[in-house]
Amino acid sequence: MHGCIAILLIFIAPGSMALGQGESGIQGRITAAGTGAPLAGVNVLVEGTFIGAASDLDGYYQIKKLPPGRYTVFASMIGYRNTRVADVIVPQGTVVSVDLALERDILKSPQIVVTATRMEQDIMESPISVSVVGLRQLLDKGAVSLDEVIEYESGVALVKGQLNIRGSSGYTMGAGSRSLLLIDGVSLLGSAAGNIVWTVVPASEIERVEIIKSAGSALYGSSAMGGVINIITRNAPPRPETRLRVRLGRYSRPKHDQWRWRESPGLLHTAEATHARPYGDHSGWLRVQRNYSPGFTRLNWLDAWNLTGKLKFNFGSRYSSALYANYYSESKGLESVWKSPAAPFEAPAGSEHDKGIGQKVNINGVVNYIYSPTMVVRVKAAWYDVWWKNQGTNKDYSNERKYFTELQAATNWTSALSTTTGLVCEQAGIRARIFGKHNSRTTAGYLQARQKIGNWLLSSGGRYEQYYVDGKNKDQSFAPSLAVNWRRYTWLSLRASAGGGFRVPTVAEMFSRSQLNVFKVEPNPDLASEKSVSLEAGGAIVLPAILFKQLNLDASVFVNNFENLIEPVPDHEGIIHFENITRARIAGQEVSMTALVPGEWALWQLTYTHLDPVALSGAGEVIDTLSYRYRHNLFNTVKLYVRGATLTFEYRYASRLDKTELFDENPRSGQDRRVPLHLINMSLGRTFYGWETLLRVENLFQYYYVELERNMASERLLTLTLNRTF
Questions:
Q1: Burial zone of 417 (CB within 10 Å; 0-12 exposed, 13-18 middle, 19+ buried)
Q2: Which of 115-119, 370-374, 558-562, 592-596 is least confident?
Q3: Whether the Cβ atoms of residue 296 and residue 315 lie closer than 8 Å to each other
Q4: Residue 557's pLDDT is what?
Q5: What ranges do the domains of the chain cover?
Q6: Which of 254, 286, 455, 633 has its CB 3.0 to 4.6 Å from that of 259, i.e. a possible disulfide?
């Protein structure tokens, strides 16, 4: 930690005069093309530097203290096309005027991403596969929790809430994830189980979600070997606003009378309020949410409060910072398996009142210091505290804390070469009945470089990480990465990448000792770290077509090779241990399409992912299929815009699981029979008197299936969501 601070002081100390020379700059006004209306909150950046500004309520922006030179001005805003003005000459002591008119983005998708290389770049120039979920997609589904949306993205699947990017995780009983979840670039995983808690994410306050579908360990370390999801929370708008949202809903009764377990309908409700406002050069927002659901099974109920806020500070032209905080409190049913095939929505006898209660606190912040026009230093820090305990037949409890710090320097050495370097320190401690008392510590350093050569964009880098458990060096890993993007035309790009990954076993995987109904888990402290090598090639194309006004296509092929893959394996007595599988391979193909018809009255989105997940012998021969991976995933969405209303049809298909671990299918009795997924959703949205109204039906035809054995999936759900901004 002392080394981190020393490097930070070296970065900062000599830079006090770097931006103080000259009074040159760029100013102007940003308007909407066609209407001339001013656009507030547009991000304006001088390319090749870290200097920029945001437009005010009247569309005006001003970039001060810019050294003389020739620049390109870049403007971006969600819902509008990126706009560049090249060859802007700024003489010494002169403020140059540059006005910009932004055209609406007809597909309304974010075009700038930061997660793939830790640097801002056009999504068409990303060297690895990236999927972006915008705010509009969240609102169109009335989402309260992020998992309600991302499972409709290409390459993404959920198994009982556990995230799978290209089949990387399968199902590990919530004790480890190979896909990393970030909030504003800072890890949100717990320290013990390493699982993702979707309900703490403020879905209504997200600007965009970036999904990286390739190994991310070279930049983000352990748990990123299968991919990364980065949630970018929104900043407060330039004018005060208050937003209200109410969601009401009910679950349908089971089709079969013998399955009905309650007389009254299952009514759920969510209510939240957000207030945002500027404070001079600063701004912030605060959101409070109450979420209650009776569940579609006896122990699927949830009662939770969520308090979230964000502050953004701007101190002149050189310093800025942001602080994000979340408090989450919940009481929920403690699910395990169903009572019987004849009563799949009821809990096993004796556990009908099992529940868990808990609280989670997450605080993270970042300080940005512009050392010079071509260099910025960032300090990130986070504190994560989680407490929970179970009541009923299971008495487990846990209390854990995690501290995270990162020092980062991003430098544009030339107009074609840029680097990002950083040091990371992370420490966690846990006291729990289920895990025991343990502590862990991670230290890491990384370097990422990006070089542009003609139409080629090369990205390379690596990360070295050391991991300690209870004061002992558990492992040390190095993950390299190399990627290339070729973009000869604005409408076409090709990419290829190779990267290493690693994941250290979590405290839960090494030390869990627990029993919940029929599931009994024993510890395995000798687990080794997982390793992986990921290869990918793909391309993206954006062009007008004969039948469509605009057509976006993206396709890729990939193969991920794993060593020492950790999976929960029951022995002959049914006791589960987490064990290292010697070798595994997941290969596949992925394609996605977005098409807009002339007149912009219909939007068609289609994604398909094929996986071949296999376990290998030491000689590389296929010996088995990996469990809990869908070989085929297809999502099809059609949106119709008619007379101010939006009508949406969604279809999701997932092939039958080839293999599970806990209970095998009995072909004679039909016990634990596995079926493919065929889910159809519909929604109708329209604005009435300032209220955005969304009527949505999920699982329209009440299709019955299980993601995890002996756990019935959701019944039909009907919801009405109302949004209003004042």
A1: middle
A2: 115-119
A3: no
A4: 97
A5: 2-102, 112-725
A6: 254
Q: What is the chain's mean pLDDT, rounded?
A: 87
CA nearest to 456, candidates 84, 125, 115, 72: 125
In the chain, % helix, strand, coil (3-state, to 5) comes to 5, 55, 35
d(CA 342, CA 337): 13
Domains 2-102 and 112-725 agree in fold? no
**What is the sign, positive or negative, of the torsion defined by CA atoms of 522, 525, 526, 530?**
positive
DSSP characters over 591-652: EEEEEE-TTS-EEEEEEEEEEEEEEE-TTS-EEEEPTT--SEEEEEEEEEEETTEEEEEEEE
* pLDDT single digits (tens) 281-324: 899 999 999 999 999 999 999 999 999 999 999 887 788 999 99
Model pLDDT, residue 543: 81
Query: What is the Cα–Cα distance from 209 to 486, expressed in whole angstroms?
Result: 25
DSSP state of 33: T
> HEC profile for 630-645?
CCEEEEEEEEEEECCE
Give the number of other Cβ atoms within 10 Å of residue 554's Cβ: 23
Residue type, 576: I
The CATH number of 112-725 is which of 2.60.40.10, 2.40.170.20, 2.60.40.1510, 2.40.50.140? 2.40.170.20
> Residue 703 in contact with residue 678, Cβ under 8 Å?
yes
The answer to whether residues 440 and 466 touch, using CB atoms and an 8 Å cutoff, is: no
Give the residue with greater pLDDT, 559 vs 14. 559
Please tell me the pTM assigned to this model: 0.89
| pLDDT at 697 exceeding the cut of 50 | yes
Task: Decide: 420 and 119 in contact? Cβ < 8 Å.
Answer: yes
Convert the pLDDT of each residue in 627-641 to its tens digit. 999 999 999 999 999
Tokens of 475: 């492992």
When computed from its CA atoms, the radius of gyration of the chain, rounded to whole angstroms, is: 26
Q: Are 725 and 241 in contact (CB under 8 A)?
A: yes
**194 falls in which pLDDT band (50, 70, 90)?**
low
**CA of residue 186 relative to chain centroid, distance:** 11
